[in-house]
C-alpha cells in the first residue's frame, strides 16, 4: 500500500481529536502525530531531521549578531550536507530511510534565509518543529512556507466548508492518480500505441503518455497533500496552476511545481541576481538547482539546462519578435498555438529524464526526428 | 440591560481574552458575589463608587455589578496624576474607591473619612497557577490584596435589585480639561438603556454576535461599546490583548480565527492596520464578519477609501460624544444611513444645525450641531450652570460644526470648541497649557493640535521662557510627564521668543498653528516626489498603467512583477536615483513601499 494512503488514514483518524482539543493543543497534536508516525515508519530519518532542526535553531538563538553571515551559512549548509550525503551516497548508508528529505531540507533552507533576511522572527523550537513536521506535506510536498503556515495555524478554526474542500481535493487526487495516471496514461495509451505501425506516432504517443502520467501523478499527490492539510484546517501553497495552459515557457515555470520553482526564484535566482546583476547566470544556476533537486545525475542536468534555454529563448524572443509575442499572449488562436507549443516543448524535454541514461534518450530522439 | 445576562445559556462565552474564556455563568456568579461585597460595605443606590482598575476583566465586571445594583460608577483612569485624581475624585464625593494599588500610592488621596478605599492588586486578580497554589507561594501576597480578600469574605446575594430608578446616575465620566473645569458627564440609567437599544439596532447585534473592542475602558467608547453593549445584546466580547503595532498581524488573525462580527477601532488604528496589511487583505473575508466601526474621532475620506479598498470591507462611521453615551449619528452599517465621507444620519434622536444667531441654517451651510434624544446626558455632575449652558430646551449644544445635505446626511466641518482629538483621545489643550505654566521657567504657554496623517491630530506646545531660564524642550516634556497622563504629553514643545497675540492680548491660535507647521517636520509622510517617480518606473517596467499602481502594491498584486522584471526595476531605480542597493535589500524589496523607504534613506537630492 502506498505510504501516502497510510498518512491519509492517520490524518482522517486524528481529525476528530484535533477539532476537539483547545487552540493551545491543536498545533501540538499535529506535531505529535507526525512524531509518532515517523517513529514507527522511519525512526532514523526522524532522528536526523529533528537533530538538524535543533542545531539550526540553536545557531539562530545563540550565534552572536556579529557572526550573522556565518550563522546563516551554517544553517543553510547543515541540512544541505545531510541531503547531499544521502543523494550522493545513499547506496552505502542504506539504514537511513530518507522520507521526504528533499522537501524537508528545502524547507529548512527557506527558514534559514527568511530568518537571515529578518522577514520572520526566529521561531521557538516548538514552532519550528511544528512547521517542519507537518504531516500532510512531509513526504510529497509542496515546499510550504513558514510564515504562511504559522498564520494558518493562528487562524485555525473548524469550518465545514474547508473540511469538505479537503475531501474534494483528496477525491480529485485519487482520480488523477488512479484513473488518469495508472489507467489512462499507463494502460490505455500504450495500447493505443500498439495500433499503429508508424514508429514516429508510437514514440510520440509514448512521450505524451510519459509527460501526462508524470503530471497527473505529481498533481494528484499534491492534491492529496493539500486535501489532507485542509482536513486539519491548514491551507498550503498550490503546487500546480494548470501548467499546460501556459502560453510560453516562462509562464509554464510559474505554473509547474510552483513551490519548488518559487523556492528557486527566492533563494537561488534573487540572491544571484542581487550579487551578479546578471539574470542569465541567475536563471541557469536556478534551473540547475531545480533539476538537481530531483536527482543528482547527468540526465537531470541536461533536462535543467534545456529548461533554462527554453526560458531564455522565450524572454529573448519577446524582444526580438514583439508582434509574435503579443499574438501568442493575447490573441485566442495565438494562445492555443502557444499552449500546444509549450506542451510539446516540455514533453520532448522530458525524454531526457524518461530513460535511465542519456544514450537511450539520444536514441529515441534519433528515432523520432532522425 | 441585565435581562439578557440571566437568561443566557450558562456555558455561553461572555468574554474571550487571549488565553482565557469567561462564561455568562461566571459573570452572573461574579456579579452576585460583588453585590454581596457592596452589601457588606453598605453601598446604596445612587452612591458613588470610583473605579480605577487597569485589569480589564475586573474593571468590566465591577462596572457591570455596580450598574446592576444601581450604584453610580465614577470612571477614573489609573494613569491620572495626583492633582487631577484628587480634584476629580474629591468632586465626585465617593462612598467607595476601588483602584489599582499603584495608582492609590501615587495619588495619596485626601478625602473625607467616610470614604472606603480598597486597593486592587493586578497580580492577584486571577487565581495563582496550580503549582503555586499547591506550594502556597502566593499566600502571603494574597493577604495584602484587600479587594480579593474582601470579595472572598463576602456572601453572594441571592438576587439583584428588582428595579432601579431610571433617573439614577449610572456612571460619571470626566472629560479632559484643566483641574478646575473638567466636566463630569452624568449618564442616567434611562440614557444608557435608551442608547444601548439604539446601538444594538444600528449594529444589528444578536446573541450570536462577537464584538472585539480593545479601546480603553476608562473612555466611553471602550466601556459602553464593549462589555456593556455585549451584555445588553447577550453576545460575546473579545478583548485579546492591548492594541500595539507589533500585535496587528495577531489581531487580524484573531478576528478571523474567532469569527469576530463587529470590530471597533479609532481612525488611528485603521491607519496602522493599513500599514501592516500586506498579505492580510483577506482578514475580514469570512461569513460571520458584519461591521467595522470607526469611533471616537473624525474619519478622513482618503483613509476611509484606502481601508475599504485594501480590506474589501465597508467601514461604518459613528459620531457621538461622552455626553451622548457613545453615538448619535451613524453612517452604516444600516444601509439607509450609510453615506461615505459623512457621519450619516441621526438614529433615535433629532438634530438641528444653527448659526451664531441661533437660527436653523439651510442645506449645505455649516453651523453648530445640536442634538436631542433620550440618550443625552442628564447633567454635568454638580454643575447646573454648565448644564444649562450646554442643554437648552432639551437641545444639547455639541460645539461641533456640521452641514446637512439634501438627503439628510450630515458632514462634520470643524470644531467650535477648543479640543484636540489625537488617536481617538480627547485632549483639552487648556489642561496641557495649565501644566506647562506650572513650570517655574515658563512665562507663557499654548498647546495646540497639528494635523497628523496617523493620529488625526498631534499635540504640540509652544512656550516662552522667562528671561535667564535655559531649560530645554526635553526638560519640559519630562516635567509634563510628572503631571499629565502619557497621552496628554506634547509630542513636541517649541521654545519661541513670543506667542502671536491679537489686540485683546489673546493668543492667535491660527497664526501660531501656521508658525508651528513651518517648524514641525512632517513625520511619517511619504515623499510625494519619490512616490510619483517610483510609480512611473514601476509602470514602465511592469507594463501596468500608472493609474493602476499605488504605494500599497507589491510583487503579488502587480501582474508583471516577475523575477525577471524585478531586476530591471531594481537597476532602473538605481540609475534614476544614483544609488545602489545591497544584496539583502534587492532580495527583500518586494513592494513599492519598501522601495520608497530605501530610496528615502539612500537618496540625497541634488539640491541638498
UniProtKB/TrEMBL annotation, chain A:
<keyword id="KW-0808">Transferase</keyword>
<dbReference type="InterPro" id="IPR024194">
    <property type="entry name" value="Ac/AlaTfrase_AlgI/DltB"/>
</dbReference>
<dbReference type="InterPro" id="IPR051085">
    <property type="entry name" value="MB_O-acyltransferase"/>
</dbReference>
<keyword id="KW-0812">Transmembrane</keyword>
<protein>
    <submittedName>
        <fullName>Alginate O-acetyltransferase complex protein AlgI</fullName>
    </submittedName>
</protein>
<comment type="similarity">
    <text>Belongs to the membrane-bound acyltransferase family.</text>
</comment>
<feature type="transmembrane region" description="Helical">
    <location>
        <begin position="300"/>
        <end position="315"/>
    </location>
</feature>
<dbReference type="InterPro" id="IPR004299">
    <property type="entry name" value="MBOAT_fam"/>
</dbReference>
<feature type="transmembrane region" description="Helical">
    <location>
        <begin position="66"/>
        <end position="86"/>
    </location>
</feature>
<dbReference type="GO" id="GO:0016746">
    <property type="term" value="F:acyltransferase activity"/>
</dbReference>
<keyword id="KW-0472">Membrane</keyword>
<keyword id="KW-1003">Cell membrane</keyword>
<dbReference type="Pfam" id="PF03062">
    <property type="entry name" value="MBOAT"/>
</dbReference>
<dbReference type="GO" id="GO:0005886">
    <property type="term" value="C:plasma membrane"/>
</dbReference>
<feature type="transmembrane region" description="Helical">
    <location>
        <begin position="336"/>
        <end position="355"/>
    </location>
</feature>
<keyword id="KW-1133">Transmembrane helix</keyword>
<feature type="transmembrane region" description="Helical">
    <location>
        <begin position="37"/>
        <end position="60"/>
    </location>
</feature>
<feature type="transmembrane region" description="Helical">
    <location>
        <begin position="6"/>
        <end position="25"/>
    </location>
</feature>
<keyword id="KW-0012">Acyltransferase</keyword>
TrEMBL record, chain B:
<dbReference type="InterPro" id="IPR025110">
    <property type="entry name" value="AMP-bd_C"/>
</dbReference>
<dbReference type="InterPro" id="IPR045851">
    <property type="entry name" value="AMP-bd_C_sf"/>
</dbReference>
<dbReference type="GO" id="GO:0006631">
    <property type="term" value="P:fatty acid metabolic process"/>
</dbReference>
<dbReference type="Pfam" id="PF13193">
    <property type="entry name" value="AMP-binding_C"/>
</dbReference>
<feature type="domain" description="Carrier">
    <location>
        <begin position="525"/>
        <end position="603"/>
    </location>
</feature>
<dbReference type="Pfam" id="PF00501">
    <property type="entry name" value="AMP-binding"/>
</dbReference>
<dbReference type="InterPro" id="IPR042099">
    <property type="entry name" value="ANL_N_sf"/>
</dbReference>
<dbReference type="InterPro" id="IPR009081">
    <property type="entry name" value="PP-bd_ACP"/>
</dbReference>
<dbReference type="InterPro" id="IPR036736">
    <property type="entry name" value="ACP-like_sf"/>
</dbReference>
<dbReference type="InterPro" id="IPR000873">
    <property type="entry name" value="AMP-dep_synth/lig_dom"/>
</dbReference>
<protein>
    <submittedName>
        <fullName>Long-chain acyl-CoA synthetase</fullName>
    </submittedName>
</protein>
<dbReference type="GO" id="GO:0031956">
    <property type="term" value="F:medium-chain fatty acid-CoA ligase activity"/>
</dbReference>
Amino acid at each position: 500500500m502506498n505510504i501516502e494512503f497510510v498518512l491519509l488514514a492517520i490524518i482522517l483518524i486524528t481529525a476528530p481529536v484535533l477539532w476537539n482539543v483547545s487552540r493551545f493543543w491543536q498545533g501540538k497534536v499535529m506535531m505529535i502525530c507526525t512524531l509518532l508516525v515517523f517513529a514507527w515508519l522511519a525512526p532514523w530519518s526522524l532522528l536526523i531531521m529533528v537533530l538538524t532542526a535543533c542545531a539550526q535553531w540553536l545557531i539562530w538563538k545563540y550565534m552572536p549578531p556579529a557572526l550573522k553571515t556565518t550563522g546563516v551559512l551554517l544553517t543553510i549548509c547543515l541540512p544541505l550536507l545531510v541531503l547531499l550525503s544521502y543523494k550522493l551516497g545513499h547506496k552505502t548508508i542504506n539504514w537511513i530511510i530518507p522520507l521526504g528529505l528533499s522537501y524537508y531540507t528545502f524547507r529548512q533552507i527557506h527558514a534559514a534565509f527568511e530568518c537571515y533576511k529578518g522577514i520572520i522572527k526566529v521561531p521557538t523550537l516548538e514552532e519550528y518543529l511544528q512547521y517542519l513536521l507537518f504531516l500532510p506535506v512531509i513526504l510529497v510536498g509542496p515546499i510550504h512556507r513558514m510564515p504562511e503556515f504559522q498564520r494558518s495555524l493562528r487562524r485555525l478554526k473548524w469550518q465545514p466548508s474547508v473540511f469538505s474542500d479537503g475531501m474534494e481535493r483528496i477525491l480529485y487526487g485519487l482520480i488523477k492518480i488512479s484513473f488518469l495516471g495508472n489507467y489512462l496514461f499507463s494502460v490505455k495509451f500504450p495500447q493505443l500505441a500498439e495500433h499503429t505501425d508508424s514508429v514516429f506516432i508510437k514514440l510520440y504517443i509514448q512521450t505524451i503518455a510519459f509527460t501526462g502520467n508524470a503530471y497527473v501523478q505529481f498533481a494528484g499527490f499534491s492534491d492529496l497533500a493539500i486535501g489532507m492539510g485542509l482536513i486539519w484546517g491548514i491551507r498550503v501553497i498550490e503546487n500546480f496552476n494548470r501548467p499546460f495552459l501556459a502560453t510560453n515557457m516562462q509562464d509554464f515555470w510559474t505554473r509547474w511545481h510552483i513551490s519548488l520553482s518559487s523556492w528557486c526564484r527566492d533563494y537561488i535566482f534573487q540572491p544571484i541576481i542581487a550579487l551578479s546583476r546578471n539574470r542569465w547566470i541567475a536563471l541557469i544556476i536556478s534551473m540547475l538547482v531545480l533539476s538537481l533537486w530531483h536527482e543528482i545525475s547527468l540526465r537531470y542536468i541536461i533536462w535543467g539546462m534545456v529548461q533554462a534555454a527554453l526560458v531564455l529563448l522565450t524572454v529573448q524572443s519577446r524582444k526580438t519578435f514583439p508582434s509574435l509575442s503579443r499574438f501568442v499572449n493575447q490573441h485566442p488562436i495565438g494562445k492555443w498555438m502557444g499552449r500546444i507549443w509549450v506542451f510539446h516543448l516540455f514533453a520532448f524535454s522530458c525524454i531526457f529524464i524518461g530513460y535511465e541514461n542519456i544514450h537511450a534518450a539520444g536514441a529515441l530522439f534519433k528515432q523520432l526526428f532522425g | 440591560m441585565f435581562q439578557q445576562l440571566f437568561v443566557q445559556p450558562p456555558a455561553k462565552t461572555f468574554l474571550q481574552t487571549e488565553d482565557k474564556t469567561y462564561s455568562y455563568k461566571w459573570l452572573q456568579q461574579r456579579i452576585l458575589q460583588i453585590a454581596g461585597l457592596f452589601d457588606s460595605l453598605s453601598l446604596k443606590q445612587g452612591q458613588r463608587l470610583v473605579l480605577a482598575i487597569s485589569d480589564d476583566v475586573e474593571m468590566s465586571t465591577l462596572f457591570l455589578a455596580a450598574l446592576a445594583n444601581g450604584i453610580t460608577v465614577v470612571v477614573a483612569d489609573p494613569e491620572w496624576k495626583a492633582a487631577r485624581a484628587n480634584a476629580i475624585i474629591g468632586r465626585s464625593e465617593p462612598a467607595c474607591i476601588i483602584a489599582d494599588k499603584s495608582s492609590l500610592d501615587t495619588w495619596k488621596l485626601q478625602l473625607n473619612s467616610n470614604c472606603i478605599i480598597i486597593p486592587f492588586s493586578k497580580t492577584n486578580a486571577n487565581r495563582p497557577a496550580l503549582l503555586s497554589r499547591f506550594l502556597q507561594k502566593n499566600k502571603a501576597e494574597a493577604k495584602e490584596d484587600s479587594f480579593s480578600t474582601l470579595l472572598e469574605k463576602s456572601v453572594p446575594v441571592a438576587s439583584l435589585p428588582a428595579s432601579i430608578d431610571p433617573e439614577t446616575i449610572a456612571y460619571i465620566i470626566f472629560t479632559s480639561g484643566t483641574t478646575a473645569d473638567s466636566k463630569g458627564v452624568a449618564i442616567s440609567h434611562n440614557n444608557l438603556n435608551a442608547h444601548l437599544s439604539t446601538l444594538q439596532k444600528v449594529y444589528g447585534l444578536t446573541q450570536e454576535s462577537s464584538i472585539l473592542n480593545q479601546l480603553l475602558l476608562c473612555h466611553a467608547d471602550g466601556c459602553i461599546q464593549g462589555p456593556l453593549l455585549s451584555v445588553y445584546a447577550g453576545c460575546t466580547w473579545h478583548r485579546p490583548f492591548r492594541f500595539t503595532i507589533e500585535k496587528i498581524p495577531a489581531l487580524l488573525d484573531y478576528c478571523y480565527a474567532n469569527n469576530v462580527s463587529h470590530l471597533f477601532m479609532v481612525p488611528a488604528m485603521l491607519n496602522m492596520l493599513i500599514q501592516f496589511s500586506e498579505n492580510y487583505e483577506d482578514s475580514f473575508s469570512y461569513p460571520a464578519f458584519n461591521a467595522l466601526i470607526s469611533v471616537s474621532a473624525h474619519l478622513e475620506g482618503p483613509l476611509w477609501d484606502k481601508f475599504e479598498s485594501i480590506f474589501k470591507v465597508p467601514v461604518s462611521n459613528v459620531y457621538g460624544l461622552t455626553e451622548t453615551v457613545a453615538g448619535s449619528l451613524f453612517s452604516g452599517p444600516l444601509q439607509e444611513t450609510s453615506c461615505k465621507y459623512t457621519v450619516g444620519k441621526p438614529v433615535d434622536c433629532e438634530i438641528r444645525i444653527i448659526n451664531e444667531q441661533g437660527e436653523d441654517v439651510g442645506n449645505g451651510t455649516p453651523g453648530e450641531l445640536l442634538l436631542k434624544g433620550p440618550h443625552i446626558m442628564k447633567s454635568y455632575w454638580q454643575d447646573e450652570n454648565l448644564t444649562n449652558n450646554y442643554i437648552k430646551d432639551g437641545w444639547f449644544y455639541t460645539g461641533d460644526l456640521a452641514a446637512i445635505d439634501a438627503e439628510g446626511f450630515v458632514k462634520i466641518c470643524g470644531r467650535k470648541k477648543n479640543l484636540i482629538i489625537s488617536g481617538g483621545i480627547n485632549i483639552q489643550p487648556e489642561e496641557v497649557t495649565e501644566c506647562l505654566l506650572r513650570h517655574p521657567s515658563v512665562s507663557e504657554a499654548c498647546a495646540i493640535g497639528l494635523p497628523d496623517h496617523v493620529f488625526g491630530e498631534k499635540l504640540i506646545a509652544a512656550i516662552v521662557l522667562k528671561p535667564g531660564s535655559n531649560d530645554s524642550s526635553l526638560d519640559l516634556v519630562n516635567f509634563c510627564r510628572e503631571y499629565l497622563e502619557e497621552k496628554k504629553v506634547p509630542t513636541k514643545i517649541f521654545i519661541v521668543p513670543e506667542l502671536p497675540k491679537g489686540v485683546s492680548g489673546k493668543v492667535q491660535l491660527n497664526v501660531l498653528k501656521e508658525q508651528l507647521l513651518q517648524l514641525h517636520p512632517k513625520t511619517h509622510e511619504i515623499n510625494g516626489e519619490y512616490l510619483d517617480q517610483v510609480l512611473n518606473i514601476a509602470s514602465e517596467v511592469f507594463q501596468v498603467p500608472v493609474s493602476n499602481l499605488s504605494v500599497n502594491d507589491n510583487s503579488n498584486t502587480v501582474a508583471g512583477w516577475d523575477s525577471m522584471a524585478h531586476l530591471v526595476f531594481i537597476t532602473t531605480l538605481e540609475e534614476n536615483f544614483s544609488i545602489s542597493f545591497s544584496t539583502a535589500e534587492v532580495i527583500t524589496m518586494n513592494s513599492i513601499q519598501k522601495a520608497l523607504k530605501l530610496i528615502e534613506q539612500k537618496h540625497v537630492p541634488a539640491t541638498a
